[in-house]
Amino acid sequence: MSTTMKSNTQLFMDGILKENPIFKLALSMCPAVGISTSVMNGILLGTAVLFVQVFSSCTISLIRNYIHPKIRIPTYTLTIATWVTVIDLVLAAYVPAAYKAMGMFVRLIVAFAIITMRLEMFACREPLGKSFWDGLGMGLGFMFAMIVLGAVRELLGSGMLLGYDVLGFKPLLFFVLPSAGFFVVGLMMAFFNWIEVAYNRKKGV
Amino acid sequence: MLLVSVLLVGCENGHKFVKKTAFKDTDKMVLTFAGPVDESWASNVRNFSAYEEPDPDIVLTIKETTLSPDKTQVTLVFADPLNTGEAHIISATNILSEGQDLGAAVLTVKKLYIGVLMTIFIGAALINNFVFTKYLGLCVFFGTSQKRGTAVGMGVVFTIVMVFAAVMAWGLYQFVLKPYQLTFLNVVVFIGLVSLSVQGVDTILRKVNPMLFKAFGVYLVLVIANCIAIAVPLILADNEYSGWESFALALGAGLGFLIALFLMACVRERLELAQVPPSFRGLPIAFVTAGLFALAFLGFSGLSIY
Q1: Residue ranges of the domains in chain B?
Q2: Which of A37, A41, A179, A197 to probe the B interface (max B CBs under 10 A)?
Q3: Percent helix, percent strand, percent coil in chain A, to nearest 5
């Protein structure tokens, strides 16, 4: 049944590092630019995405043998939409202030390419256990990237982390401005590329 | 004052002595009278009261009133900026003109409907451009902005699908979801609707204009992966837009996306020839470019047409 030889741990770690949705696959960039202004936003949206990814992967994996190939994409979309509605209502009820700060992004998870991609590439052929670990890895990878972006922007922009004053001064106020999101993501990507290039050159010598 | 204004609504609309009412700037209203009014009456703020049509309980604070030199125009200055998209009701007590009491008046101040539509349209296209100020649809934006031809194709197809989907979403929301209190199903219904419109446009285009389909067909699939396609129906449901307003929003969103794609494609075509540092090649430099565009689009934030 299973087509991958990877172990569960490997699947899990791939999602976080080797196939990180934001830094490596460059998918779901909208929240990375739009609301990565603080670590808290990253944690909350990350949790929401993690929830939707894991539950959608498990659902699709469970019913994978009953889905007609021709209607598989609409099936994925509706499954995701259902879980998004669930997490949307839960967040709106329990953390209304933070929910408001995230604006429409929680409901827009439904259009995030990363979740549909994982369902199409993985969950529709793999058994429940593997799909669960893959979903967990991808969701945590997204959360990790959002937290890193949020930490960089919050620390450099306002000198704070999770609302606590860490630095005592504001190095670059520019970083927390909404329109700086593009610059921050661009610079982070360039930074990772630079490390990779430097690392490869070192290894080559 | 509140009681008077509430009682007067409905039994009298307008006043024959008042010629025109209009908004001015963001916090002023101008009432034009057919003849001169007394300064002692006009300068007293307590002679006027105002509220937004849907919320009669919330009385807006009028900071001061000024009378024009020819005494026919009274400008009401409000303490807070007005929501000029909404109709406002002004009640004025006993208008005094040259010592004569002309009775009370209840006046409606609202923008021309075409003005409201234009505001929504321009707002969606430029001021709140979905790509550069709301940061939506970025995956498709970066994916299809490499060449100008692709950019225009994607923008046009997206606009067509968006208009179809938004008008249907409005109908479904106002006549099915809201009356039956199913608004919590918004996300599920709207994403299904967008997929359906894509399928519909696909089928129609294939039959009606096969040439056009050959050129633009590939972009149709990408529309579903675009967050703007689901954001527009959600916005029009949240703001309770009417049919025409939904149409204006969708058209504005589509045009704004087209503008963003085209501008970006022009720059990226030139970037191909530029000497970019190796670690910035590809997406990183595209993001920095988009950041510069986002800063430029901030300049539209002060734009106000009506």
Answers
A1: 2-109, 113-302
A2: A179
A3: 75, 0, 25
Distance from CA of A91 to the nearest CA of B (A): 13
Q: In sequence order, what are the residues at sequence separation of 6 or more whose Cβ sits closer than 8 angstroms to the Cβ of residue A41?
A: A35, A98, A101, A102, A146, A150
Chain A CB contacts of B222 under 8 Å are none
Kindly report the pTM of this predicted structure.
0.79
Question: In this complex, do A104 and B235 lie within 8 Å of one another by their Cβ atoms?
Answer: yes
ipTM of the complex: 0.84
DSSP conformational letter for A91: H
Q: How far is A5 from chain B (nearest CA, A)?
A: 30
**What value does the mean pLDDT take over residues A37-43?**
85
Any idea how long chain B is? 306
- Per run of 10 residues, the mean pLDDT along chain B (length 306 residues) is 40 63 79 81 80 80 82 83 77 78 78 81 88 87 86 88 92 92 89 87 85 78 83 90 92 94 93 87 89 89 69
With a cut of 60, say whether residue A68 has pLDDT above it: yes
Q: Which of B185, B231, B286 sits opposite A104 (nearest CB)?
A: B231
Which CATH code, of 2.60.40.1220, 1.10.101.10, 1.10.630.10, 2.160.10.10, is assigned to B2-109?
A: 2.60.40.1220
How far is it, in rounded angstroms, from Cα A59 to Cα A79?
8
Distance CA(B129)–CA(B259), nearest Å, equals 9
Name the residue of chain A whose CA is nearest to B137's CA: A30
- Cβ neighbours around B169 below 10 Å, total: 26
Amino acid at site B270: R
| Cβ within 8 Å, pair B287-A180 | no
Q: What is the DSSP letter of B61?
A: P
CB A125 within 8 A of CB A17: no
Please give the C-alpha separations between residue A79 and each of A14, A125, B211, in angstroms, as whole numbers.
24, 16, 35
Q: Report the C-alpha gap between B227 and B229 in whole angstroms.
A: 5
